[in-house]
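Thread title: Can someone regenerate the structure for this chain?

I was given the following input by a collaborator and told the matching structure tokens would be attached. They weren't. Posting the sequence so someone can regenerate them.
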Amino acid sequence: MDDKYYNTFIFMWDDNGFEGVIPVDNDLIDQYVFDIMSDNKLDPRIQRLNNDLRLLVLRAQVNAHRNCEIYAVEFKEKYTFDTIVGLCEFKPKIFKKLFKKHGTKIV
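Best answer:
Regenerated them for you:
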């Protein structure tokens, strides 16, 4: 994807394994609060993140029989998107347990 480092990611998985990973720019949260409080138009990056998250939630609802789960996880260290995807593919069961324990459930 890119060489940018993130410390917050949104993960989706189901009975078949990981379905998706969305990196979240940390400055987006501050920008979102600023935009809402000042009645500014939302930053396009926030709109994209919102759209991506809505698509994951919709996919989870449509595929409820596959026991989809979505979690947001904030790490202390920063990682590239490719590093996180590689770790999830390498040991999916271990990371799924860690994300459930330390993440925030969305769906």
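The longest helix spans residues 44-62.
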